[in-house]
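Q: What structure does this chain adopt?
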Amino acid sequence: RGSTFKGLLQKKSEGRIPNVEFVKVIADRKDAGIIAIGEKAKISTEVIEKSNDLSQEEYERLLINEIKILKPDIIIMAGWMKIMSETFCDNFTNNCDIYDKSLWSFTNRF
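A:
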């Protein structure tokens, strides 16, 4: 759906998150709504799907390498509903924010 990212773009257009530039949208599915939203906003987009012949570690390495090329100040994993390994998280300890409002529904389950 891309609704979380759409909301972030709206906040930026309202001036509520100034000095922010969204440089790339990466999705794990071709049909992810965030791809169309990114393209409409003239933001670079890429789909990095996890094929069956890739291990989770290999897939995360592809993501890590792509993100490191961008050298972002912050990584916002808006709506990214995948469990990422400690290795992935260790690569971005100071600049990764995973946000999805649906995660709040799990807060009382742990």
